[in-house]
Design brief:
By secondary structure, the chain is of the alpha+beta class. 20% of the residues lie in helices and 30% in strands. A hairpin with a 3-residue loop joins strand 1 and strand 2 (9-14). It is globular and about 50 Å long. The longest helix is centred in the middle third of the chain and has 14 residues, at 68-81. The protein has helices at 46-58, 62-65, 68-81, 154-158; strands at residues 4-5, 9-14, 19-27, 32-38, 101-102, 108-112, 115-124, 132-137, 141-146. It starts with a strand and ends in a 19-residue tail after the last helix. It has four helices and nine strands, in the order ββββαααβββββα. Strands 1, 2, 3, 4, 5, 6, 7, 8 and 9 form a nine-stranded mixed sheet that branches. It has a domain at 62-101 and 124-176. This is DUF6985 domain-containing protein.
Length: 177
């Protein structure tokens, strides 16, 4: 059982989740400290894990603001699906969407299909049931926003039957219409 990550610090293992957790580390983009969760990984992957955590800690708010159009598209799809019912979905402008996100500050580092990701489940005022999932490839680039479903890419979420544009930060089947 692991107890330490070089360059990161001590780890604690949580029997309930079966995951390791770091001590709190400052993440500039989230404006506060985060406790990262990790699944078991091979010893030779430790440097990769450390690099992704460090990458993520170093990103600034511009990584989020660069994805404002994608986040606003997600908001609009949810609002449209709920018939723009103001009792359920607040009326927001593009400039208001990020201020309606509450960062839970517990990002998760994982490896899938040859890539490292940092994924984070957040709360948002317009989608209380599914929330918001942010996925950062290599802990640097925000590559996916949408409802929290645990998928790390749009292709893994939606399958191969759709023409999903490369580089689409937000995408859903309604995006094709």
């Amino acid at each position: 059982m692991r107890s330490h990550l070089d360059g990161i610090g001590d780890l604690r293992f949580d029997d309930t989740t079966g995951r390791y957790f770091t001590s709190r580390l400052h993440v500039e983009a989230f404006g506060g400290d985060c406790e990262f969760s990790l699944d078991e990984f091979e010893d030779e992957q430790e440097a990769d894990v450390v690099r992704r955590i460090r990458n993520f800690c170093a990103i600034d708010r511009s990584v989020l603001t660069d994805a404002t159009d994608a986040l606003f598209a997600y908001y609009r799809d949810v609002a449209h699906a709920l018939d723009f019912d103001e009792e359920v979905v607040p009326v927001l402008t593009r400039d208001q969407v990020w201020s309606n996100v509450v960062f839970n500050r517990r990002p998760h580092v994982e490896f899938e299909d040859g890539h490292w990701y940092v994924t984070s489940e957040e709360e948002c005022s317009w989608e209380e049931e599914h929330g918001l999932q942010l996925v950062f490839t290599d802990g640097v680039a925000l590559t996916r926003v949408g409802a929290y479903d645990g998928h790390l890419t749009h292709r893994s979420a939606w399958g191969k039957g759709y023409e999903i544009p490369d580089g689409a930060v937000y995408w859903s089947p309604t995006s094709e219409k």
